[in-house]
Amino acid sequence: MTTSRPQAPAPSTSTTPVARPKLSDAALLLLGQAAARADRMLLPPPATLRARGGALQKVLQVLLKAGFVTEVPVATEAQSWRLGEGDQRIGLSIADEGFLAIGLPVPVPVAAATAAPDPGRTTKQATLIALLSVEAGASVPVLTETLAWQAHTVRAALTGLRQKGHVLARSKDASGTTVYRITGQAMVTAGAPAATGA
Q1: What is the mean pLDDT of residues 153-158?
Q2: What mean pLDDT, rounded, does the chain reach?
Q3: 25-185 sits in which CATH class?
Q4: Contact, 76 vs 87, CB < 8 A?
Q5: Is 118:69 a contact under the CB 8 Å cutoff?
Q6: What DSSP line would sit under the chain, residue for residue?
């Protein structure tokens, strides 16, 4: 998706704390999918992502400025978001801060892996809980795309979380889309029916 783009702004060296931006659905989708990818790349974007062209560029700029992604050289145009010196393709990779921003643990480097189960391995269940734990919550379309699940699978997973004691709040975002957010964990009384309505 490489086009003629201005050079990315130089990283700020200021020590003044910068307020983290509220993550939009598009940002959540890009970070969540990058976290699930082996190469950790944000691009190419998922086919169902509505943000395209200039809108997508703005989302990527916000993530880069916040330190949730880092620029890395890439070989393909599909992974590239701008051209650097000598027409070198530059892509965006989710940074450790990006994992933390969506509530996921930073993966353990492959070189540090052992025969024991990797505690840094990101499971779909962990990604689901992480996306539902951010302040903005997440919609069913975002969850289906990020997790590569069908809508009915996402709804079943939401019901499963309720049955495990998670308290799920349901509300509307600015666009009128229904979003879900984990607001707490309640004690599940034996024999009591779990709430439904996903």
Answers
A1: 88
A2: 78
A3: mainly alpha
A4: no
A5: no
A6: -----PPPPPPP---S--PPPPPPHHHHHHHHHHHHSTT-B--SPPTT----HHHHHHHHHHHHHHTSEEEEE-SSTTTEEEE-GGG-EEEEEE-HHHHHHTT-PPPPPGGG--SS--TTPPPHHHHHHHHHHSTT-EEHHHHHHHHT--HHHHHHHHHHHHHTTEEEEEEE-TTS-EEEEEEEE-PPPTTPPPP---
Structure tokens at 134: 């951010």
pLDDT in tens, 42-95: 999 877 777 788 889 999 999 999 999 999 999 999 999 999 888 899 999 999
ω before 44 within 30° of 0 (cis)? Answer: yes
Domain ranges of the chain: 25-185
Residue 78: HSE in the Cβ half-sphere, 13 Å Cα cutoff: 5
CA distance 21 to 59: 11
**Strand pairing category for 89-94 and 80-83:** antiparallel
Rounded CA separation 102/99 (Å)? 6
For the CA atoms of the chain, what is the radius of gyration?
18
Give the pTM. Answer: 0.55
Tell me the backbone φ, ψ of residue 102, rounded to 5 degrees.
-105, 15
